[in-house]
Each structure stands twice: as structure tokens, then as C-alpha cells.
Automatic annotation (TrEMBL):
GO terms for molecular function: L-aspartate:2-oxoglutarate aminotransferase activity; pyridoxal phosphate binding. Residues 30-392 form the Aminotransferase class I/classII large domain. It comes from Pichia sorbitophila (strain ATCC MYA-4447 / BCRC 22081 / CBS 7064 / NBRC 10061 / NRRL Y-12695) (Hybrid yeast). Keywords: Aminotransferase, Pyridoxal phosphate, Transferase. Gene3D superfamilies: Aspartate Aminotransferase, domain 1, Type I PLP-dependent aspartate aminotransferase-like (Major domain). GO terms for cellular component: cytosol. This is Aspartate aminotransferase. It holds the Pfam family Aminotran_1_2. CDD domains: AAT_like (cd00609).
């Protein structure tokens, strides 16, 4: 009898399976619009110029490889908090920050803090959502309550449904909201909608849990994308912000993230930081240094900051150009049945195309186009060489598959 007798297979990971199929497909014209990663005009992973320059500086500095503090590298924490929340709040010391293993680690740490240490367990999640929230909240001891985030007919945020969920939520519930470039719908709350929601949350004593995995990719401007955060700060709200530098600095594999807990005063921030230290010590002891040092060295160097700004603007402009190209081919050149305006209005990496499961499946199984079955397209996988072909294949499935 084995210790592992009772183990059952867990829910498969769709992206793992797509990745496997993709690697087994030898067709040189295959198109990958699946995972949420940025690709350059040549379809390759993109090394930001700011990162490349920071790597040179770090290499010359000949650093050691000692352990870091449980909460993280102090200069990284300061840089990360300033990027997310602004200088004023950081100076007031109303924030407890802990370096994490990417944005996923920040979400998990935040959920653990609320659920196991503060006894706040009800997590409201608008669907469709980033699929990892569900197991992550469950493992942290939370309970998930779903509501509808997206109106697929109108291709816009289902604001009535969000307000209804908020209305019915008991005090001390938690609302997970994505800051921008919503995964998977590419459809974000407007500033007015944020303002209404945050006022209601404050009034009802509901905790905002904001996931900022794509800060900087919506507008190309880190501060502009973080306006909803400033809205909550202006209302003196307590909230959590889960930060990731995977997308905004292209540091996917380096696992650079940070959890920021904004509290009503400096004394509370101190005790929250102590709890974060305690949790992180038992889970990971301390987070990896390399990507965090790159991030802080960019943040403190005005030239590298300017380069990062340029890099982000370049990414954001390319994504918008791809969206315009897709729109042109589908509407003007191929006159594909349907309305495709949402490819222009949605933001960031994702276009929630509205293709059916069968249409997506046909693209994967027969046409060498790889995407999740919910029809989410990562537009960064498209470029001048493959966009037209991609659109002809979309046109084909729209006309021939239900
Ligand atoms: C909405 C959302 N949140 C969090 C993350 C986690 O990011 P990271 O790769 O930094 O763990 C992702 C990654 O794709 C995401 O899409």
C-alpha cells in the first residue's frame, strides 16, 4: 500500500496542454495566441532595453548571493510600492509590502493574510476570470463567490451585475478586481465605474483586493494605469494590491512580485508587515533577488526609468497597431460576418474574440492556431507576418463552424 494511494488527478491546466500541443506541431506557420506573454514583431520573447541595461549594471556590480530579508530587499520594496501607490503614501508609511514569487505569489499571500489571519474569507470574483484565482483562494482557506463580470452580448463590463454582487455581499467580504487589461476579457472598468464601486465598498466595509498584473500595458503609462489606486487612496481606504513585474518588465521567469497592504495608519502597517513576514518565512523564507534588483535599479536610475517608459509605450503602441490590423482585415478586407469593433476597444494583451468553443477547437485541431477554448486571443502573438493569415482563419471558422 502506497502513501499516495488516495491521490486523484487534479484539474488539468489548459495552458500546459496547449503548450505541449504547440511544441509538437512542426508546421512552420503555426500561430500562438495562447499564453499571456508579450512577443515582439518577430514573434520572439522581448527583452526590454531597460532590463538589458540594468543587467549590465548589475553584472558589473559583482554582488554576492546572501539570503535576503523575509519581507524582501528593502530598496525593491520601496521602488515597488512607489510604482504602485505613489511616493506620498509610501512616505506616510501606511503600507506594508512583502516581495513575492511573481503576482501569483502576491495573490496567494494576500488571500492567506485575509483568510487565515484576519478571518475574512468570502472572496467575490467576477467571471470570466484568471483561472488561477479559484484554486489559489481555496488553498488559502477562502470561499469563492462568483458573479458575472462581462456582458458577452454587449461586449462590455456587466456593471449592474457587479453592483448587485456588491449590494448582496456581507460586511468584510473581499472583491478581487483587476486594475487594467482584464484577463481574459480585455475589458476594464472605467474611472467613473471605479469611483462608484470604491465608494460603495467603503460604505459597505468591503475589502478591495486589486490585481495589477498588467500595470503599464493598457496605456503605456504606469501612473495612468494606476489611477484607480489613487482613487482608493484619496478615499482613505484600506486595500490590497498584488503587483507583478512579469509583464511590465518582461521578467516572467524571474518571478518578481510584491504584495502591498494599504492600511489606515502607520501602526497598522507595522503589524501587517509583521504578519506578512511570518507567513512568508514559513512558505518561501525569502524571495529571489535577481529580478528584484533589476527592478529597483531601473526605478532609482532616471535614465533607465526613461528607457522603461519608452519600452512600455512601444509595447502598448504595437498592441494597438495589431488590434487595428485585425480590425481592418476582418471588417474591410474579408468582411467577416459579425461586429469586430471590440478588438479595438479592449485593452492590453487580450482580445476576448467571442469565438465559440467549437470554432476555437477547430483552429487548434485543424488550423495550427493555438488559443484557449474560451476564444481569448493574445494579440501580442500577432505581427505583420501572420496577422492576415490569422484573420483568414478566423474568417473561415466564423463562416463554417458554429
Ligand atoms: C490576471 C493575472 N493576475 C496575476 C497573474 C500572475 O502573474 P505572475 O506571472 O507574475 O505570477 C497573471 C498572469 O498571467 C494574470 O493574468
Amino acid at each position: 500500500m502506497s502513501v499516495f494511494e488516495g491521490l486523484q488527478y487534479q484539474e488539468p491546466d489548459e495552458f500546459n496542454d496547449i503548450r505541449k500541443k504547440l511544441s509538437e506541431d512542426s508546421n512552420c506557420r503555426k500561430i500562438d495566441v495562447s499564453a499571456g506573454v508579450y512577443r515582439d514583431e518577430n514573434g520572439k520573447p522581448y527583452l526590454l532595453k531597460a532590463i538589458s541595461q540594468a543587467e549590465d549594471i548589475l553584472h558589473d556590480a559583482k554582488r554576492d548571493h546572501d539570503y535576503n530579508f523575509c519581507l524582501g530587499i528593502p530598496e525593491f520594496l520601496n521602488a515597488a510600492a512607489t510604482i504602485a501607490l505613489g511616493e506620498k503614501l509610501v512616505k506616510e508609511k501606511k503600507v506594508a509590502s512583502c516581495q513575492t514569487i511573481g503576482g501569483t505569489g502576491a495573490c496567494h499571500l494576500g488571500a492567506t493574510l485575509l483568510s487565515s489571519f484576519c478571518n475574512f474569507r468570502k472572496f467575490y470574483i467576477g467571471t470570466p476570470a484568471w483561472p488561477n484565482y479559484f484554486p489559489l483562494i481555496k488553498q488559502a482557506g477562502g470561499e469563492v463567490i462568483k458573479y458575472n463580470y462581462y456582458n458577452s452580448e454587449k461586449k462590455e463590463v456587466d456593471f449592474t451585475s457587479i453592483l448587485n454582487a456588491l449590494e448582496s455581499a456581507p460586511r468584510n467580504s473581499i472583491f478581487i478586481l483587476q486594475l487594467c487589461c482584464h484577463n481574459p476579457t480585455g475589458t476594464d472598468l472605467s474611472q467613473e465605474q471605479w469611483d462608484i464601486l470604491t465608494s460603495k465598498m467603503k460604505q459597505k466595509e468591503i475589502v478591495p483586493f486589486v490585481d495589477g498584473a498588467y500595470q503599464g500595458l493598457a496605456s503605456g503609462d504606469l501612473e495612468k494605469d494606476a489611477l484607480p489606486i489613487q482613487n482608493m487612496i484619496s478615499k482613505d481606504m484600506e486595500f490590497l494590491f498584488c503587483q507583478s513585474f512579469s509583464k511590465s518588465l518582461g521578467l516572467y521567469g524571474e518571478r518578481v512580485g510584491c504584495l502591498h497592504v494599504v492600511t489606515s495608519d502607520a501602526k497598522k502597517a507595522e503589524i501587517v508587515a509583521d504578519s506578512l513576514r511570518f507567513i512568508f518565512r514559513s512558505e518561501c523564507s525569502s524571495a529571489p533577488a535577481f529580478g528584484a534588483l533589476l527592478t529597483s535599479s531601473i526605478s532609482k536610475n532616471p535614465n533607465l526609468r526613461a528607457q522603461w517608459k519608452e519600452d512600455l509605450e512601444g509595447i502598448s503602441h504595437r498592441l494597438q497597431q495589431v488590434r487595428r490590423d485585425v480590425h481592418y482585415f476582418l471588417t474591410e478586407k474579408y468582411k467577416t460576418p459579425g461586429n469586430w469593433d471590440h478588438v479595438l476597444t479592449q485593452k492590453g494583451l487580450f482580445w476576448f474574440s467571442g469565438l465559440t468553443r467549437e470554432q476555437s477547437k477547430t483552429l487548434i485541431d485543424n488550423l495550427h492556431v493555438y488559443l484557449p477554448l474560451n476564444g481569448r486571443v493574445n494579440v501580442a502573438g500577432l505581427n505583420k507576418k501572420n496577422t492576415e493569415e490569422f484573420c483568414t482563419l478566423i474568417d473561415y471558422v466564423v463562416r463554417n463552424v458554429n
